[in-house]
């Protein structure tokens, strides 16, 4: 059941992050939005544990997943924008 909740929270976090940071070169579609949120949750968990906000084994919640997804979107937009200019 934990993996299903991770996918649901990841999808919600990805949708919220895309509303916060819209752009032309962002990933779209159900699966990419869900992956964005899940990766955002992992980023938030890693950063939170590194900064001492979360204990080992404790994951980020919805807010942390949204913040992580926004960070991932920002990095993705930066890298995608840079590769688009190079062509």
Describe the structure.
- With 87 residues, the chain is mostly helical.
- It has 3 helices and no strands.
- Helix 1 (2-20) crosses helix 2 and helix 2 (30-51) packs across helix 3 (62-86).
- The model has no long low-confidence stretch (mean pLDDT 77).
Name some characteristics of this structure.
87 residues; transmembrane helix; GlsB/YeaQ/YmgE family stress response membrane protein; membrane; cell membrane
Largest sheet: none
| End-to-end CA span | 44 Å
Spell out the helices and strands N to C. HHH
> Which consecutive residue ranges, at least 5 long each, have pLDDT under 50?
none
Radius of gyration: 13 Å
Overall pLDDT score? 77
Q: How does the helix and strand content classify structurally?
A: mainly alpha
User: What's the total count of β strands?
Assistant: 0
What helical percentage do the residues reach?
over 70%
- Number of discrete helical segments: 3
Choose one word for the global shape: globular
Beta-strand percentage range: under 5%
Membrane topology: Multi-pass membrane protein
Subcellular location: Cell membrane
Organism: Bradyrhizobium canariense
Protein name: GlsB/YeaQ/YmgE family stress response membrane protein
């Amino acid at each position: 059941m934990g993996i299903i909740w991770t996918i649901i929270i990841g999808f919600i976090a990805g949708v919220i992050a895309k509303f916060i940071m819209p752009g032309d070169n962002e990933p779209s579609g159900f699966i990419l939005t869900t992956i964005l949120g899940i990766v955002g949750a992992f980023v938030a968990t890693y950063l939170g544990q590194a900064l001492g906000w979360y204990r080992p084994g404790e994951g980020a919640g919805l807010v942390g997943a949204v913040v992580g997804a926004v960070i991932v979107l920002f990095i993705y937009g930066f890298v995608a924008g840079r590769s688009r200019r190079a062509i």
